[in-house]
Design goal:
By secondary structure, this protein is an alpha/beta fold. The chain has ten helices and 19 strands. It folds into two domains: 271 residues, no CATH class; 51 residues, no CATH class. The longest helix is centred in the C-terminal third of the chain and has 15 residues. The protein is globular.
């Protein structure tokens, strides 16, 4: 049975499995929208270079087994060496407090499922939930119809969370292909600060499809950083939609590091809702074999005196395929906008490919906007220079590739995360480098 038919057929059983029912009407309406839209195909402009048939023609279990047997050693290997972090662990969709470490105070933190059951948070959900996520996309409607797993975090006014929070989504002990719809809601009130790391991990040889939607609200003078560490196995599919709405004088960063997973689609929308806003998007993609990573970004400059910065680097080997489509929209009242967008790519083999399309739509006349993309191979002169100094060809290539990707890591101020990214770069480049 095709996935679309499975989704429609399983929905009533899914609704019956929930303790909270106040979203039932919204869920049914979203399912109807999804049914009308259907999954995107290569005929859709936004999915012109990304074929989803591999995902949509498989059968999936919509009700994952909760039992797991993850060992401490297995879980420790997922850590970044972050003894001073907090971490939140979901296994097979369920929050596991015994694996988590949460020391943050003066904040509202709940699992998404619990928050939906908690009457006192109903008002907050009605104010924020699904207000900036697109109502017109197949995957966002599908997520609303089926979302159950994930977390809700509200950081009150002027509260600074010193420790980064690492959120783990783990799937293990599943005998069938499994479908997760994760949902995250982050609210950072005026003057508050928080940093979140998100990672997904499939421990099984069966396939996992994760359809994730995240909504981030950053209020005046607040700072929110969200780091996506995508290094899953080759039986994992991830479709991610992240929406960030910023108020005046705020700063929001989303960093996306894509190293592992069979197919990854990252959709990122920034909505600027005030003046003097800074929005940062950085990405590093290093993939090989027959992996695909697709980045679609959009920044909506709706007010004057704001900045946005997009810097995406891609390294592709084997028969890997990369896609980058970055959009910048500048409203006619958004004077003094400063928008930068760059996508640089290196192809290491004849079978590797990249489709890149930076776009600007500018309706204001007093702006500074730039975009560009490059696709090529390693610089032969630089390679010769290193080899002439006794460095092997493989190490020279790795050094040049590391330098190529490095500037996309410059705004990571979490040292263990930066070290982890460096180690993953070294592993992917198959060379020992002392970073």
């Amino acid at each position: 049975m095709a996935l679309k038919e499975q989704i429609i057929e399983n929905h009533n059983e899914f609704l019956e499995s929930l303790r909270h029912r106040f979203l039932d009407d919204d869920r049914k309406a979203a399912l109807q929208k999804f049914e009308n839209i259907g999954f995107p195909t290569k005929k859709d402009e936004e999915y012109k270079y990304t074929n989803l048939k591999e995902i949509t023609e498989k059968d999936y279990n919509f009700f994952p087994k909760e039992h797991h047997n993850i060992t401490k050693e297995q879980f420790d290997q997922l850590h970044l060496g972050e003894e001073n972090f907090d971490w939140i662990v979901f296994v097979n969709g369920k929050l596991h407090k015994e694996l988590s470490k949460v020391s943050i105070e003066n904040v509202e933190f709940l699992s998404f499922n619990y928050a939906l059951n908690d009457e006192k948070h109903k008002e907050v959900f009605e104010k924020y939930f699904n207000t900036i996520a697109s109502k017109d996309l197949a995957f966002t409607n599908l997520n609303l119809a089926y979302c159950k797993y994930g977390f809700f975090l509200k950081v009150p006014k002027n509260v600074v969370i010193e420790k980064p929070i690492h959120v783990f989504y783990i799937s293990q002990n599943q005998e069938e292909n499994t479908f997760y719809n994760t949902r995250n809601l982050l609210i950072v009130e005026e003057g508050a600060k928080v940093e979140v790391i998100e990672s997904h991990h499939n421990f099984d040889s069966t396939y996992v499809l994760t359809n994730s939607v995240t909504e981030i609200f950053t209020y005046p003078n607040a700072k929110a950083d969200w780091h996506k560490l995508q290094n899953d196995n080759n039986t994992s599919y991830l479709v991610d939609h992240t929406f960030a709405k910023q108020e005046k004088d705020s700063l929001t960063t989303v960093n996306t590091f894509s190293f592992g997973g069979k197919l990854i689609r990252n959709n990122l929308d920034f909505i600027q809702n005030g003046s003097n806003i800074n929005s940062f998007m950085n990405g590093i993609t290093i993939i090989g074999k027959d992996q695909l990573v697709d980045h679609h970004t959009a920044v909506h400059h709706n007010f004057p005196n704001c900045e946005s910065y997009q810097n995406y680097k891609g390294i592709f080997d084997g028969n890997a395929h990369g896609v980058f489509n970055g959009k910048v929209f500048v409203d006619k009242i958004a004077q003094k906008t400063n928008a930068y967008q760059q996508n640089n790519n290196v192809l290491l083999s004849e079978g590797a490919s990249i489709d890149t399309k930076p776009q600007l739509e500018i309706f204001a006349d007093d702006v500074k906007c730039s975009h560009g993309c490059t696709v090529g191979q390693l610089n032969e002169d630089a390679l010769f220079y290193l080899r002439a100094r006794g460095i092997s060809k493989k190490e020279a290539q790795a050094l040049l590739l590391y330098a190529f990707a490095n500037d996309a890591m410059q705004n990571i101020d979490i040292e263990p995360l930066k070290e982890k990214i460096s180690k993953l770069l070294a592993e992917k480049l198959e060379v020992d480098i002392d970073f």
